[in-house]
Design brief:
Blueprint (H helix, E strand, L loop, with lengths): L5 E4 L2 E4 H11 L3 H4 L4 H19 L5 H7 L10 H4 L23 H16 L59 E2 L6 E2 L8 E4 L11 H19 L5 E2 L6 H9 L8 H23 L6 H21 L5 E2 L4 E2 L1 H10 L6 E3 H4 L2 E2 L4
Antiparallel strand pairs: 1-2, 3-4, 5-9, 6-10, 7-8
Helix pairs in contact: 3-11, 7-9, 7-10, 9-10
């Protein structure tokens, strides 16, 4: 492998390391990112993250490397695991003990790695990887085992940014350790749990991969978000159990939570996004979603009107995840919500009325 790669495009060329630096700079500039869709941004971030991992050399966990290289191809699906062992700091005999063994088939290889990760680290990070809607190429793979042969746009809650920090900063289980147990045929995974609350309602699956063009994809995303708002009671006049407004809890859920230092900026971005989705709520209130062509036309009329409004207010905007908002909020949302559902729990349903318990 060349130590100094060169990227060629027609008669133009640039050093690979310079290209990575330029792209890393560009993703921090909202004006440049407005020309990309969230899917494109997430794919590009995955590629850049994988390249950075190679540059850093052996110093990352195998699970992190598997997540970062999901967009990469492999003629043999088993090499999606074996090719990364040399870059991982935990694949050796005293850690995960992953040995390239081509006598094991795809299902056995992926299952062996998943078991090793669960047993070694005592957490369930592996289970936060959403399953894509694309049919698995691996027959009979257990539902708790990720199919690494499939490229995936959805982000795991264990995903890390370009600096190696976790994208989603929370740790619901704190310092507790999982005690995974497996059936004799490895089809079933059993773990202990702690009863915290009871699920009372479940929203629709955020699945838009069936829509291949943006003209229909954006309205479908809005239909799903409208369902999520209804299920969660996001626009109700009650407070959440922690005293926050339900709408503030809702938008934080859409991006998988945020750090206190990001809260004000992301809330400001959501309010811009919210101006558009309120109009979509009106379309659903009058039942227009039942008339596909009329709904699509009305949807794009709303988006164009939002775009013109943003231009008049001199705010940078882009039609990302079904509304106009600066790219940071939309990109975070594009990573957090695909292939997931929103749920409401009994505790959330008993939220407080304003000014009283």
């Amino acid at each position: 492998m060349a130590s100094n790669a060169v990227l060629l495009c027609g008669t133009k060329s640039v050093l690979w390391v310079d290209f990575l630096d330029a792209f890393a700079y560009s993703i921090k500039q909202p004006g440049l990112m407005n020309y990309l869709t969230p899917d494109t941004i997430v794919y590009a971030l995955g590629l850049l993250s994988a390249c950075r991992a190679v540059q850093r050399g052996p110093g990352q966990r195998l699970l992190d490397l598997l997540l970062q290289h999901r967009h990469c191809g492999s003629s043999d699906p088993r090499d999606k695991v074996f090719a990364l062992c040399g870059l991982a700091n935990d694949s050796g005999p005293n850690r995960l003990d992953v040995k390239p063994d081509y006598r094991r088939n795809k299902v056995e290889t992926y299952t062996d790695v998943a078991k090793s990760i669960l047993l070694k680290y005592g957490n369930l990070d592996l289970l936060s990887i959403p399953h894509p809607s694309t049919p698995s190429s691996v027959v009979d793979v257990p539902s708790w085992v990720p199919d690494w042969s499939l490229p995936q746009k959805q982000a795991s809650f264990s995903a890390r940014d370009l600096s190696g920090n976790r994208l989603f900063q929370f740790k619901a289980s704190k310092n507790t350790k999982a005690d995974p147990r497996f059936s004799l045929d490895d089809k079933l995974l059993s773990v202990n749990g702690i009863f915290i609350d009871q699920v009372t309602s479940v929203g629709s699956l955020h699945e838009t991969d069936t829509e291949t063009v943006i003209w229909t994809k954006v309205p479908k995303q809005q239909t799903i978000l409208n369902n999520w708002e209804h299920v969660s009671g996001a626009r109700s006049r009650v407070q959440y159990v922690n005293g926050e407004k339900m709408l503030d809890v809702f938008w934080q859920t859409l991006i998988g939570g945020c750090a206190p230092t990001e809260y004000n900026e992301l809330r400001h971005q959501f309010l811009g996004f919210n101006r558009t989705i309120k109009h979509f709520c009106m379309l659903h209130w009058v039942g227009l979603q039942n008339y596909r062509k009329t709904y699509l036309a009305a949807s794009w009329a709303i988006l164009v009107n939002s775009a013109m409004s943003d231009v008049l207010h001199e705010s940078l905007a882009s039609p990302l995840t079904g509304g106009y908002a600066t790219w940071t909020f939309a990109t975070r949302m594009a990573m957090a919500v695909p292939q997931r559902k929103i749920v409401k729990t009994l505790c959330g349903a008993r939220s407080r009325r304003h000014g009283r318990e």
